[in-house]
Amino acid sequence: MIVVSGTMTFAPASHDRVLDAARTLTRETRAETGCRTYELWADPDQRGRFRLFEEWDSQEALTAHFASPHFQAFGGRLGELGIEAMDVHRYIDPTVAELF
Fold first, then answer.
1. 2 pLDDT exceeds 90?
2. What stretches of 31-91 show up as alpha helix (H) in DSSP?
3. Cα–Cα distance measured from residue 18 to residue 40, given in angstroms and rounded to the nearest whole number
4. How far apart are CA 21 and CA 40, in angstroms?
5. Which CATH number goes with the domain that contains 72?
6. Of 20, 26, 46, 69, which has the highest C-beta tally within 10 A?
7. pTM of the model
């Protein structure tokens, strides 16, 4: 399993446009083969900051996601949407255990 987690920060004035673009990206991504979880949500304390959490069956599934039209479309709009910072990491085969 592959886990992707992190944050993306956009210009606060772009918040609503990013949210609209994220809705399309999220809907399309969740339908992909190999996608277990895809969450992209707005940080309630910082306008323009979005948090990302993904779980994928394999690196192949994640690579296919990167090549998908909806991912390419979103990635191609990052500059237009006012991206300021991105801190996203991939975790390969993390150990998963119940917390409680």
1. yes
2. 59-67, 69-76
3. 11
4. 11
5. 3.30.70.100
6. 26
7. 0.90
Would the pLDDT of 95 be above 90?
no
Give me the number of domains the chain comprises. Answer: 1
Length of the chain: 100
Does the residue 41 lie in any domain?
Answer: yes
Decide if 59 contacts 10 (C-beta within 8 A). Answer: no
pLDDT tens string 20-77: 999 999 999 999 999 999 999 999 999 999 999 999 999 999 999 999 999 999 999 9
Q: Is the pLDDT of residue 94 over 90?
A: no
Round to the nearest angstrom and report the end-to-end CA distance of the chain. 21
Classify residue 73: in a domain, yes or no. yes
- Give the domain extent around 28: 2-92
98 inside domain: no
